[in-house]
Write a structure and sequence with these properties.
The chain is mainly α. The chain has one domain. α1 packs antiparallel against α2 and α2 packs antiparallel against α3.
């Protein structure tokens, strides 16, 4: 299986985790969401480095954003 597929599956799983926790009337970002999101995006960055530098840089920006969200959610 290609890295991009695994990365996208992790991102979908991250959203499923977040939706589950939000369905229990919790409005904050769950740390597991950010962990799976970061893992998936990291795989997308690694995969795109060999083919398209612009896509890799854009994925890297989303990785940084997800990292900031994780940091802020754990900081509480």
């Amino acid at each position: 299986m290609e890295l991009s597929w695994i990365g996208l599956v992790l991102i979908v799983f991250a959203w499923a985790v977040q939706i589950y926790f939000m369905s229990n009337n919790k409005k904050e970002i769950h740390p597991l969401f950010a962990v799976f999101q970061i893992s998936g995006i990291l795989l997308l960055v690694i995969n795109s480095l060999s083919s398209d530098l612009i896509i890799a840089l854009l994925n890297l920006l989303t990785l940084i954003g997800a990292g900031i969200v994780l940091f802020l959610s754990l900081k509480k």
